[in-house]
Amino acid sequence: MAEGQQTGSENNQALAGVKVLDFMWAMAGPGSTRILADYGATVVRVESTTRFDAVRMVGPFQNKQPGPNNSGLYNNMNTGKLPMTLNLSKPESRDIIFDLVRWADVVTESFSPKAMREWGFDYESLTKIKPDIIMLSTCLMGQTGPHSHFAGFGNLAAAVSGFFDPTGWPDREPAGPFGAYTDYIAPWYNAAAVLAALEHKHQTGKGQHIDLAQAEAALHFLAPFLLDQTVNGRTQTRMGNRDMNFAPHGVYQSAGEDRWVAIGVETDDQWRSLCETMNRPDLGSDERLATVKGRLANQDEIDKAINAWSNQFSPYEAEEKLQAKNVPASAVETINELYEDKQLQHREHFVDLDHPDFGKTTVEGTRFKFSRTPAQINPVAPTLGRENQSVLENILGYDEERITELVIAEVLE
Amino acid sequence: MLNPYRVLDLTTERGLLCGQILADLGADVIKVEPPGGSSARKLGPFYQDQEDAENSLYWWAYNRNKRGVTLDITRSEGQDLLRRLARDAKFLIESDNPDTLAQYGLSYNELAADNPGLIYVSITPFGQDGPKASYADSDLVILASSGPLVITGDEDRPPVRLSVPQGYLHASAAAAPAALIALYESHRSNRGQHIDISAQQAAAQATQSTILAAPLNDAETRRMAGGAKMGPLEIRLLWPAKDGHVSIAYLFGSAFAHFTKRLMDWIYEEGFCDKEVQQMDWVDMGGGLFGGDPKTLEDYERLKLIVEDFTKTKTKEELFQNALDRGLLVAPVTTIDEVVESEQLESRQYWTAVDHEEMGKAFAYPGPFAKFSEQPIDYKRRPPKIGEHNAEVYGELGLDAQALAELQNKRII
């Protein structure tokens, strides 16, 4: 078994001893069990070689080579887990899964509600073999309701739960947030839900079933707009980069092609500092603009003045000048520049993994730091079926003969 | 599930969501605000546009189920009271700049000396250390330095953000599972620890791992209206409908082929493409598409026009109903008012009435983030008014009415 995954005494990580059987796919689910794995949970990640996780074929890819083991997205969501392949159409697979359920504290799945019932892996069936199992079922729309069987990706949940419309320019069609937006929110909630259920089990000895609809959890990221609708009956929509509470607030031109600096002024002091940095004492002393109300009413004029100043400098020069005066500003870093970002480097945000075909590949580290029980990231790429043998032998205690039979019967595919 | 635990929530708008998730899970969360109220209370929209600290819908959005006290922690008597509160707390969450609380004698080390089990969660823009740790910040600063901004928006305009600030929501949602991982560990060690959350690192999750393109040596992702460009591949997520827009995951390869096939079958049935197009090999095309083959990319562009010609003849409702019936990756782009009217959310009784008894009204709040079979999330308390629970909470510390009056006179509470 790989380093950092032992269930024995060497594992002093925060979640040592937590055992998870993970049937989830794509991002919203696997992103949450990645967090658990980083902190020491043993996570067996089940796929099949014929119907493997869709994001194994979504980029970015190592060296631009598409392939199930080469996806940075898949690796980023699944590093530290024990990847196992099972052909679910073989009857022997069911036995293996039931053995894993007996072993596990937590079963996680993100299929449509119907699929789990058909396989006999629904919560009720699993409690018959493991009464105190914790099961997380997370799909786009939830386990019940007319849209419960709507399967898909986070871009669809983002569209249907209102994230597209308030993203973009008021005079244009919605731009929509990047990609599968609710997939970036759901992992926090999925992980919190599983951990809360583990706490409940710690207190009472009882497991439970959690029905987490990705769309419903994500709506909390739109809550101020949703309350404006339910309380005031007002429908908010996209407003470019402007903010209802602060001005100036925008993304401004920098020197160079398609380069930008983001500035969000939140206080009157910051406004005066901005004017000082731009060497515009006339604006800084203009009484119309001294308060946020006045600035909100004169944003076109202010934005013009900022662009006229900012377009003389690179985004990083503008960031430096403004931050030196305590004005909230940042270069709009390109995706590739982020790899060189001095703060991300300082925080060791990027982590290299061993990869059987490329020598190494890279994922992101954890997004937070613990003072006493830090994350330990297993530095090996989660290639398809990598831990078949170790799961059957070390976790389930199958003997060599039985494992060989399973290989011959093409169960581990 | 977290009922045995007290949480001191010292956060500003940077961190309110973390405490709310813990409060929804049953913890006794005490929101500690400066006398006069939290800065978050200044954020609109406001109830009936009446700008008042008790009417901020931003405040309402992220403080239900919490009790509220006021406390001036910049003065020594206030610091003493906070230390006393922290003795019985399991969690403390704060979002001040690094070292701010240390100036008041309220650092992790100082509070843990009296309460070694304390889990102390710090939510900041860039983390507790590093070259940007003391940067002036705002939502745009986080998004510009973590990736989501540069990949969102129309190509011919500046990159754009979602109009509800998202940067800190990612950080404060990430803080919830982090706090609960430390709770799990504390059962073994009887010790808490300091957790350091970086909003920059949390929000980088919203790049969908495209942040890895540079280390992986794949093409950089760039923004595109209603989609994104990954190298030469233009992923379009926004499509026209007769009465608005829909989002479609229109992709090829083994993971997507069966969805795409079903969509093309429908398009063929309705006469929008010929048999040759309908019978293309959608699995095979995946390799070419993700591998950047020019001929496949050209075909893809041609196919998109066919899909667009088709979708614009249908309403959002027709497209979504067929997605449900046929198993397609198509979802309506809903506006905020449509989200509130969603039939799916209604059938799951998502919207939850929260009684604002003093107003004689109840308002519909976004509902529980998950349905737990053992202990369902209950919205027991509306967001607290300024100092609403001073007498109750400080009374629990043994302060009598006279002592409270004295503290109030000195404006400590």
Identify the quaternary structure here: heterodimer
Percent in helix of chain B: 25-40%
User: Any idea of the CATH class of the largest domain in chain A?
Assistant: Alpha Beta
Summed up, the domain count of chain B is 2
H-E order of chain A: EHEHEHEHHEHHEHHEEHHHHHEHHEEEHH
Strand proportion of chain A: 5-15%
Total number of beta strands of chain B: 15
What does this structure look like?
- The complex is a heterodimer of chains A (413) and B (413).
- Chain A is an alpha/beta fold.
- Chain A folds into two domains: 19-221 and 347-408, 3-Layer(aba) Sandwich (Rossmann fold); 249-338, formyl-coa transferase, domain 3, CATH 3.30.1540.10.
- Chain A is 38% helix and 14% strand.
- Chain A is built from 18 helices and twelve strands.
- Chain A has helices at residues 30-38, 72-78, 91-103, 113-119, 123-129, 154-160, 182-204, 214-218, 223-232, 268-277, 281-284, 292-297, 299-310, 315-324, 335-338, 342-346, 388-395, 400-408, and strands at 19-22, 42-47, 82-85, 106-109, 134-139, 208-213, 249-253, 260-264, 329-331, 350-355, 359-364, 368-370.
- Chain A has a six-stranded parallel β-sheet with strand order 3-2-1-4-5-6, with helices on both faces. A three-stranded antiparallel β-sheet of chain A has the order 7-8-9, with helices on one face. A two-stranded antiparallel sheet of chain A has the order 10-11.
- In chain A, α1 crosses α7 (182-204).
- Chain A is elongated.
- The two termini of chain A are 20 Å apart.
- The model of chain A is unreliable at 1-9 (pLDDT under 50).
- With 413 residues, chain B is an alpha/beta fold.
- Chain B folds into two domains: 6-206 and 383-409, 3-Layer(aba) Sandwich (Rossmann fold), CATH 3.40.50; 222-333, 2-Layer Sandwich (formyl-coa transferase, domain 3), CATH 3.30.1540.
- Helices cover 38% and strands 16% of the residues of chain B.
- In chain B, the strands form four sheets. Chain B has a six-stranded parallel β-sheet.
- In chain B, α1 packs across α7.
- The chains are: A alpha/beta (413), B alpha/beta (413).
- At the A-B interface, α1, α2, α6, α7 and β6 of A face α2, α6, α7, β6 and α8 of B.
- β6 (208-213) of chain A pairs antiparallel with β15 (371-372) of chain B.
